[in-house]
Design a protein that fits this description.
The complex is a heterodimer of chains A (about 210) and B (about 270). Chain A is mostly helical. Chain A has one domain. Chain A is about 70% helix and about 0% strand. The two termini of chain A are about 25 Å apart. Residues about 1-10 of chain A have low confidence and may be disordered. In chain B, about 65% of the residues lie in helices and about 5% in strands. Chain B is built from eight helices and two strands. Chain B has helices at about 25-35, 45-60, 65-90, 105-130, 135-145, 150-180, 190-220, 235-260; strands at about 95-100, 100-105. A two-stranded antiparallel ribbon of chain B has the order 1-2. In chain B, a hairpin with a 2-residue loop joins strand 1 (about 95-100) and strand 2 (about 100-105). Chain B starts with about 20 loop residues before the first helix and ends in a 12-residue tail after the last helix. The relative contact order of chain B is 0.16. Mean pLDDT of chain B is about 85; it is low at about 5-10. Classes of the chains: A mainly alpha (about 210), B mainly alpha (about 270). At the A-B interface, helix 1, helix 2, helix 4 and helix 7 of A face helix 1, helix 3, helix 4, helix 6 and helix 7 of B.
Chain lengths: ~210, ~270
């Protein structure tokens, strides 16, 4: 059912999503939703203790919220995987974990999903280099920053540029480069061999 | 360690008026109110909405005040941070100054608005989460929200996985604590690196588990459509009445606030 001819390199848009791919997206959302939740337990206390600086420190970790999209794209390698993964992750955070941001998180998730997905889409889901991952993190962080800047009233504050710089740096490192580290790690363990990423490696082996 | 929002709604909220309402309608209302609040930047309108929303949540769930107050804590913490940073870092008419610190009138107004917005969304989210069962919500989204059956069952499978995850996480941490080098005082390491190792192990285990789940879902025919459903989540007149009531109050407050000259939009950020 999932066999791919060795030479067939481009993402297939028309094939319907398999349940396996959908469940993987949900699993990524669940795992990261849970890890954020574990992390936020400690984080909320810390950010209250830091007072005004706590509001700034959220940008340091902003990139980690982007991680799901590049992971999903790299493993599943089909259009909209990143956006869908982000939105599903936000649904799990709001509905099952009770996020403090509320349902506006769905919109933020879709926006950052679009940002993260654009660089991969531009290569037609063929290239997975450090540069593409970094661009993915940069765009994801940049787009969602514009949205949050209006929503959270950052526009007009003295700190806008400081926020932007920290936010984008975090996006590139945590939301881009870290994703490649995780994807390569996952590929080495063999758990994603049955997804598009594994089939692609197999196909490359046949050709070369 | 357990996740408070998981599992069926506890206590009196389970049989309350709000718990009997259709989950999709509740979610849509929460979404609409959040979206409208997102473009309001004066403190008066959200303050009025907060009082009304808190009263409505208390009346419709019968929640004890102490429990409601406890659930407020994360929203208060978040709101306080947003308020302080706006008060201190927004240019405008100086209201108070001490050394390098200065508080502006604009900062107080915008910061207050954002903090109160957090509280309004917060109290509504508390009402939603304490009165809504996640599984019922997904069934309702499938039936009334036209969510595809495959996405619905994938999310429900993920929900089941999430419930088991705290235990899985403990197991991994214990396993690492047995093997990993301990700190000088004998406690397991709490460094970010140790957290990362645990996180990666959790990811690998979950991906593997997810593949098995997908196979078993498919072998039970859950990937096929169309499907019939056994237990329908009802959508009744009371749900429409609730929607009309909430939207009516929201519109009345916003229009009244505008007529009285309190309402301010995004332009408040730039003035």
């Amino acid at each position: 059912m999932n066999s791919t001819a060795p030479g067939r390199q481009h993402a297939r848009i028309r094939d319907p999503w398999t349940l396996r791919d959908l469940v993987l997206l949900v699993v990524l959302g669940v795992v990261f939703g849970f890890l954020y939740w574990v992390f936020v337990q400690a984080w909320t206390a810390l950010s209250i203790a830091m007072g005004p600086a706590g509001d700034l420190s959220q940008h340091v970790l902003a990139g980690s919220w982007l991680l799901v999209a590049p992971l999903a794209i790299a493993i599943i390698r089909r259009p909209f995987a990143g956006i869908l993964a982000e939105v599903l992750a936000s649904v799990i955070e709001v509905v099952f974990l009770g996020s403090a941001v509320g349902p506006l998180l769905f919109i933020a998730a879709a926006i950052q999903g679009v940002g993260s997905e654009l660089p991969f889409a531009a290569t037609r889901y063929r290239r997975y280099t450090w540069l593409i991952y970094a661009l993915s993190g940069l765009l994801g962080a940049g787009l969602v920053f514009c949205y949050s800047a209006v929503l959270s009233g950052w526009i007009g504050q003295d700190l806008l540029v400081v926020r932007l710089v920290i936010h984008l740096t975090s996006g590139v490192i945590l939301g881009g480069l870290l994703a490649k580290v995780v994807v390569d790690g996952l590929a080495r363990t063999g758990v994603v061999d049955n997804y598009a990423i594994g089939r692609r490696v197999e196909a490359d082996r046949v050709i070369h | 360690m357990s996740i408070p929002a998981l599992g069926p709604p506890a206590g009196r909220a389970a049989g309350s008026v709000l718990a009997r309402r259709n989950p999709t309608v509740k979610l849509m209302l929460l979404f609409v109110v959040s979206a409208v609040l997102a473009v309001i930047f004066d403190p008066v309108t959200p303050a009025v909405l907060y009082v009304l929303a808190a009263a409505a949540v208390i009346a419709s769930t019968g929640m004890e005040l102490t429990r409601l107050a406890l659930l407020h804590l994360p929203f208060i913490g978040f709101g306080l941070g947003v308020f302080l940073v706006n008060a201190l870092s927004r240019p405008g008419d100086v209201w108070w100054t001490a050394g390098p610190l200065r508080i502006t009138v604009e900062g107080l107004s915008v910061g207050g608005s954002l903090a109160l917005r957090t509280l309004v969304i917060g109290v509504l989210a508390i009402g939603f989460i304490t009165s809504t069962d996640g599984v019922r919500l997904m069934h309702s989204l499938h039936q009334q929200g036209r969510l595809g059956p495959r996405v619905t069952y994938a999310v429900l499978a993920g929900y089941r996985m999430l419930q088991e995850m705290p235990r899985e996480w403990q197991t991994i941490r214990h396993a690492h604590a047995v093997r990993a080098p301990l700190r000088p005082d004998g406690a397991p390491s709490r460094s970010p690196l140790a957290f990362g190792r645990g996180a990666f192990a959790l990811l690998v285990i979950s991906v593997r588990k997810g593949e098995r789940m997908a196979l078993s879902l498919e072998s039970r025919g859950l990937g096929l459509s169309p499907r019939t459903t056994w237990r329908r989540v009802p959508l009744t007149g009371a749900d429409w009445a609730m929607a009309a009531g909430v939207l009516g109050v929201l519109a009345t407050v916003v229009v009244t606030s505008r007529m009285l000259g309190h309402l301010r939009g995004v332009e408040a950020l730039l003035s």
